[in-house]
Amino acid sequence: MLIVQDPLFKKHRTPDGHPERPARAGALDAVLEDAARRSGAALERARAASDEELQRVHAQAYVERIKRFCAEGGGALDADTHAVAESFEVARHAAGAAIQLVEYLLEGRGRAGFAAVRPPGHHAGPDYPMGFCLFNNVAVAAAHACAKSPAARVLIVDWDAHHGNGTQDIFYERAEVFFLSMHQFPFWPGTGAASETGRGAGRGTTLNVPLPAGTPRERIRAAFREALDRVAEVFEPTLVLVSAGFDMHRLDPLGGQTLEAEDFGGMTRELWERFVLKGAAGMASCLEGATTWRV
Fold first, then answer.
1. Which residue in 58, 82, 122, 123 is the catalytic one?
2. What per-residue confidence (pLDDT) applies to 254?
3. 108, 142, 202, 206: which sits with the fewest CB atoms below 10 Å from its CB?
4. What angle is formed at CA 21 by the lines to CA 211 and CA 291, rounded to 5 degrees?
Protein backbone atom coordinates (compact mmCIF):
# COMPACT_ATOMS: atom_id res chain seq x y z
CA MET A 1 0.00 0.00 0.00
CA LEU A 2 1.08 3.55 -0.71
CA ILE A 3 0.32 6.52 1.54
CA VAL A 4 1.06 10.00 0.20
CA GLN A 5 1.30 12.88 2.66
CA ASP A 6 3.35 16.05 2.59
CA PRO A 7 3.97 18.95 5.00
CA LEU A 8 3.55 21.20 1.96
CA PHE A 9 -0.22 20.73 2.23
CA LYS A 10 -0.24 22.88 5.38
CA LYS A 11 0.96 25.88 3.36
CA HIS A 12 -2.43 26.35 1.71
CA ARG A 13 -3.96 28.71 4.24
CA THR A 14 -7.56 29.79 4.62
CA PRO A 15 -9.14 32.51 6.78
CA ASP A 16 -9.47 31.98 10.51
CA GLY A 17 -12.41 29.73 11.32
CA HIS A 18 -12.59 28.26 7.82
CA PRO A 19 -13.65 24.59 7.96
CA GLU A 20 -11.00 23.50 5.43
CA ARG A 21 -7.87 24.49 7.32
CA PRO A 22 -4.24 23.38 7.69
CA ALA A 23 -5.01 21.61 10.97
CA ARG A 24 -6.76 18.93 8.92
CA ALA A 25 -3.41 17.87 7.46
CA GLY A 26 -1.63 18.14 10.79
CA ALA A 27 -4.20 15.95 12.50
CA LEU A 28 -3.39 13.10 10.11
CA ASP A 29 0.41 13.20 10.30
CA ALA A 30 1.01 10.92 13.28
CA VAL A 31 -1.94 8.68 12.41
CA LEU A 32 -0.68 7.96 8.90
CA GLU A 33 2.94 7.53 9.97
CA ASP A 34 1.85 5.02 12.61
CA ALA A 35 -0.36 3.22 10.07
CA ALA A 36 2.57 2.98 7.67
CA ARG A 37 4.82 1.52 10.37
CA ARG A 38 2.27 -1.05 11.46
CA SER A 39 1.21 -2.12 7.97
CA GLY A 40 4.47 -1.84 6.10
CA ALA A 41 2.93 0.66 3.70
CA ALA A 42 5.18 2.88 1.62
CA LEU A 43 5.06 6.53 2.71
CA GLU A 44 5.91 9.15 0.07
CA ARG A 45 5.92 12.91 -0.34
CA ALA A 46 3.78 14.35 -3.12
CA ARG A 47 5.08 15.28 -6.53
CA ALA A 48 3.68 18.17 -8.55
CA ALA A 49 1.28 17.65 -11.43
CA SER A 50 2.49 19.26 -14.63
CA ASP A 51 0.46 21.82 -16.55
CA GLU A 52 -0.12 19.13 -19.19
CA GLU A 53 -1.52 16.75 -16.59
CA LEU A 54 -3.79 19.41 -15.12
CA GLN A 55 -5.01 20.39 -18.57
CA ARG A 56 -6.37 16.93 -19.26
CA VAL A 57 -9.38 18.03 -17.20
CA HIS A 58 -8.96 21.79 -16.73
CA ALA A 59 -8.88 24.48 -19.41
CA GLN A 60 -5.44 25.95 -20.05
CA ALA A 61 -6.77 29.44 -19.37
CA TYR A 62 -8.12 28.28 -16.02
CA VAL A 63 -4.80 26.75 -14.92
CA GLU A 64 -3.05 29.98 -15.90
CA ARG A 65 -5.67 32.02 -14.04
CA ILE A 66 -5.04 30.16 -10.77
CA LYS A 67 -1.27 30.40 -11.26
CA ARG A 68 -1.48 34.16 -11.83
CA PHE A 69 -3.96 34.72 -9.00
CA CYS A 70 -1.63 33.04 -6.50
CA ALA A 71 1.47 34.75 -7.88
CA GLU A 72 -0.26 38.06 -7.16
CA GLY A 73 -0.80 37.07 -3.54
CA GLY A 74 -4.13 35.24 -3.70
CA GLY A 75 -7.34 36.18 -1.92
CA ALA A 76 -10.97 35.09 -2.22
CA LEU A 77 -11.91 33.29 -5.43
CA ASP A 78 -15.50 33.08 -4.20
CA ALA A 79 -17.25 33.23 -0.83
CA ASP A 80 -15.90 29.81 0.20
CA THR A 81 -12.74 29.29 -1.86
CA HIS A 82 -9.53 31.05 -0.93
CA ALA A 83 -5.91 30.96 -1.99
CA VAL A 84 -2.59 32.38 -0.83
CA ALA A 85 0.67 32.82 -2.69
CA GLU A 86 1.68 29.19 -2.04
CA SER A 87 -1.68 27.70 -3.00
CA PHE A 88 -0.93 27.06 -6.68
CA GLU A 89 2.08 24.91 -5.82
CA VAL A 90 0.19 23.16 -3.03
CA ALA A 91 -2.77 22.40 -5.31
CA ARG A 92 -0.41 21.11 -8.03
CA HIS A 93 1.07 18.72 -5.50
CA ALA A 94 -2.37 17.60 -4.33
CA ALA A 95 -3.23 16.65 -7.90
CA GLY A 96 0.22 15.10 -8.32
CA ALA A 97 -0.31 12.97 -5.23
CA ALA A 98 -3.45 11.52 -6.80
CA ILE A 99 -1.46 10.74 -9.95
CA GLN A 100 1.19 9.00 -7.81
CA LEU A 101 -1.47 6.65 -6.50
CA VAL A 102 -2.63 5.79 -10.01
CA GLU A 103 0.91 5.15 -11.22
CA TYR A 104 1.57 2.94 -8.20
CA LEU A 105 -1.45 0.81 -9.07
CA LEU A 106 -0.91 0.72 -12.84
CA GLU A 107 2.74 -0.28 -12.41
CA GLY A 108 1.70 -3.21 -10.23
CA ARG A 109 3.65 -2.05 -7.17
CA GLY A 110 0.61 -2.49 -4.97
CA ARG A 111 -3.18 -2.56 -5.04
CA ALA A 112 -4.24 0.15 -2.57
CA GLY A 113 -3.36 3.73 -1.73
CA PHE A 114 -4.45 6.84 0.15
CA ALA A 115 -3.47 10.47 -0.35
CA ALA A 116 -4.04 12.91 2.53
CA VAL A 117 -4.28 15.94 0.27
CA ARG A 118 -5.48 19.49 0.60
CA PRO A 119 -6.97 21.51 -0.88
CA PRO A 120 -9.69 19.02 -1.80
CA GLY A 121 -10.81 18.76 -5.40
CA HIS A 122 -14.23 17.38 -6.29
CA HIS A 123 -16.03 20.73 -6.64
CA ALA A 124 -13.46 22.14 -9.09
CA GLY A 125 -14.74 21.94 -12.66
CA PRO A 126 -13.15 22.33 -16.07
CA ASP A 127 -12.86 26.10 -15.74
CA TYR A 128 -13.97 27.07 -12.24
CA PRO A 129 -12.91 26.79 -8.58
CA MET A 130 -15.60 26.06 -6.03
CA GLY A 131 -16.24 24.77 -2.54
CA PHE A 132 -12.65 25.06 -1.22
CA CYS A 133 -11.31 23.31 -4.38
CA LEU A 134 -8.78 24.61 -6.92
CA PHE A 135 -7.90 21.55 -9.05
CA ASN A 136 -9.89 18.34 -9.21
CA ASN A 137 -7.42 15.83 -7.81
CA VAL A 138 -9.36 12.63 -8.47
CA ALA A 139 -10.37 13.77 -11.95
CA VAL A 140 -6.75 14.56 -12.83
CA ALA A 141 -5.78 11.07 -11.63
CA ALA A 142 -8.57 9.37 -13.60
CA ALA A 143 -7.62 11.23 -16.77
CA HIS A 144 -3.98 10.27 -16.21
CA ALA A 145 -4.97 6.60 -16.00
CA CYS A 146 -6.91 6.88 -19.26
CA ALA A 147 -4.01 8.66 -20.98
CA LYS A 148 -1.51 6.02 -19.90
CA SER A 149 -3.75 3.06 -20.67
CA PRO A 150 -6.27 3.56 -23.50
CA ALA A 151 -8.17 0.49 -22.31
CA ALA A 152 -8.59 1.89 -18.79
CA ARG A 153 -12.07 2.12 -17.35
CA VAL A 154 -12.13 4.11 -14.13
CA LEU A 155 -14.82 4.02 -11.47
CA ILE A 156 -14.90 7.12 -9.27
CA VAL A 157 -16.89 6.70 -6.06
CA ASP A 158 -17.65 9.89 -4.13
CA TRP A 159 -19.20 9.54 -0.67
CA ASP A 160 -18.67 13.10 0.49
CA ALA A 161 -21.80 14.70 1.98
CA HIS A 162 -21.65 17.31 -0.80
CA HIS A 163 -22.16 16.29 -4.41
CA GLY A 164 -18.97 16.22 -6.50
CA ASN A 165 -20.33 18.57 -9.14
CA GLY A 166 -16.92 19.32 -10.64
CA THR A 167 -16.10 15.66 -11.19
CA GLN A 168 -19.52 15.11 -12.73
CA ASP A 169 -19.09 18.07 -15.09
CA ILE A 170 -15.67 16.88 -16.23
CA PHE A 171 -16.77 13.34 -17.11
CA TYR A 172 -20.47 13.80 -17.90
CA GLU A 173 -19.98 13.01 -21.59
CA ARG A 174 -17.21 10.42 -21.29
CA ALA A 175 -17.81 6.67 -21.35
CA GLU A 176 -14.48 5.51 -19.92
CA VAL A 177 -15.11 7.03 -16.47
CA PHE A 178 -18.10 6.05 -14.34
CA PHE A 179 -19.01 8.54 -11.61
CA LEU A 180 -20.99 7.28 -8.61
CA SER A 181 -21.92 9.83 -5.96
CA MET A 182 -23.62 9.25 -2.61
CA HIS A 183 -24.48 12.63 -1.07
CA GLN A 184 -26.93 14.58 1.03
CA PHE A 185 -29.73 16.16 -1.03
CA PRO A 186 -31.08 18.78 -1.12
CA PHE A 187 -27.85 20.32 0.06
CA TRP A 188 -25.10 22.57 -1.25
CA PRO A 189 -24.10 22.75 -4.14
CA GLY A 190 -27.60 21.84 -5.33
CA THR A 191 -26.54 19.35 -8.01
CA GLY A 192 -26.66 15.56 -7.97
CA ALA A 193 -30.29 14.71 -8.64
CA ALA A 194 -31.00 11.09 -9.55
CA SER A 195 -32.05 12.26 -13.01
CA GLU A 196 -28.47 13.38 -13.81
CA THR A 197 -27.13 10.28 -15.56
CA GLY A 198 -24.71 11.52 -18.24
CA ARG A 199 -24.96 12.77 -21.79
CA GLY A 200 -23.88 11.59 -25.22
CA ALA A 201 -21.15 8.95 -25.00
CA GLY A 202 -21.37 9.27 -21.23
CA ARG A 203 -25.07 8.51 -20.94
CA GLY A 204 -25.51 5.94 -18.19
CA THR A 205 -22.04 6.43 -16.65
CA THR A 206 -23.17 8.87 -13.97
CA LEU A 207 -25.13 7.52 -11.02
CA ASN A 208 -26.29 9.88 -8.29
CA VAL A 209 -27.73 8.55 -5.05
CA PRO A 210 -29.26 11.55 -3.25
CA LEU A 211 -29.98 11.01 0.44
CA PRO A 212 -32.14 13.22 2.67
CA ALA A 213 -30.56 14.62 5.83
CA GLY A 214 -30.77 12.23 8.74
CA THR A 215 -30.93 9.06 6.63
CA PRO A 216 -30.32 6.13 9.03
CA ARG A 217 -26.86 4.68 8.61
CA GLU A 218 -28.27 1.23 7.82
CA ARG A 219 -30.21 2.74 4.92
CA ILE A 220 -27.14 4.59 3.65
CA ARG A 221 -25.15 1.36 3.65
CA ALA A 222 -27.97 -0.50 1.89
CA ALA A 223 -28.24 2.25 -0.74
CA PHE A 224 -24.49 1.99 -1.30
CA ARG A 225 -24.68 -1.74 -1.93
CA GLU A 226 -27.62 -1.24 -4.29
CA ALA A 227 -25.62 1.38 -6.19
CA LEU A 228 -22.65 -0.98 -6.54
CA ASP A 229 -25.01 -3.59 -7.98
CA ARG A 230 -26.17 -1.08 -10.58
CA VAL A 231 -22.61 -0.12 -11.47
CA ALA A 232 -21.56 -3.75 -11.86
CA GLU A 233 -24.40 -4.39 -14.30
CA VAL A 234 -23.06 -1.91 -16.86
CA PHE A 235 -19.41 -1.15 -16.06
CA GLU A 236 -16.32 -3.27 -15.41
CA PRO A 237 -13.66 -0.98 -13.93
CA THR A 238 -9.95 -1.55 -14.32
CA LEU A 239 -9.28 0.99 -11.55
CA VAL A 240 -11.30 2.34 -8.61
CA LEU A 241 -10.78 5.84 -7.21
CA VAL A 242 -12.54 7.17 -4.13
CA SER A 243 -13.29 10.80 -3.36
CA ALA A 244 -13.10 10.15 0.36
CA GLY A 245 -15.04 12.84 2.15
CA PHE A 246 -15.83 12.08 5.77
CA ASP A 247 -18.49 14.72 6.36
CA MET A 248 -21.25 12.10 6.23
CA HIS A 249 -20.09 11.30 9.76
CA ARG A 250 -22.77 11.96 12.37
CA LEU A 251 -20.55 14.48 14.22
CA ASP A 252 -19.70 16.64 11.22
CA PRO A 253 -20.70 20.25 11.97
CA LEU A 254 -21.73 21.09 8.40
CA GLY A 255 -23.58 17.96 7.31
CA GLY A 256 -26.61 16.17 8.62
CA GLN A 257 -25.91 12.50 8.15
CA THR A 258 -25.47 9.53 10.46
CA LEU A 259 -22.45 7.41 9.52
CA GLU A 260 -19.95 6.18 12.09
CA ALA A 261 -16.22 5.76 11.46
CA GLU A 262 -16.59 2.02 10.91
CA ASP A 263 -19.06 2.62 8.07
CA PHE A 264 -16.37 4.21 5.92
CA GLY A 265 -14.21 1.15 6.46
CA GLY A 266 -17.15 -1.07 5.62
CA MET A 267 -17.86 0.74 2.36
CA THR A 268 -14.18 0.53 1.46
CA ARG A 269 -14.23 -3.24 2.00
CA GLU A 270 -17.39 -3.59 -0.09
CA LEU A 271 -15.77 -1.72 -2.97
CA TRP A 272 -12.64 -3.84 -2.66
CA GLU A 273 -14.54 -7.11 -2.65
CA ARG A 274 -16.85 -6.09 -5.47
CA PHE A 275 -14.30 -4.75 -7.92
CA VAL A 276 -10.64 -5.20 -6.92
CA LEU A 277 -10.93 -8.86 -5.99
CA LYS A 278 -12.74 -9.39 -9.28
CA GLY A 279 -10.14 -7.90 -11.58
CA ALA A 280 -9.54 -4.17 -11.09
CA ALA A 281 -5.87 -3.24 -10.75
CA GLY A 282 -6.48 -1.60 -7.40
CA MET A 283 -8.21 1.11 -5.43
CA ALA A 284 -6.95 4.50 -4.27
CA SER A 285 -8.60 7.17 -2.11
CA CYS A 286 -8.04 10.93 -1.94
CA LEU A 287 -9.19 13.06 0.96
CA GLU A 288 -12.08 15.39 0.19
CA GLY A 289 -14.63 16.65 2.73
CA ALA A 290 -13.88 19.27 5.32
CA THR A 291 -14.78 17.36 8.46
CA THR A 292 -13.38 19.35 11.39
CA TRP A 293 -15.04 17.73 14.38
CA ARG A 294 -11.67 16.65 15.82
CA VAL A 295 -9.43 19.51 14.68
1. 123
2. 86
3. 108
4. 25
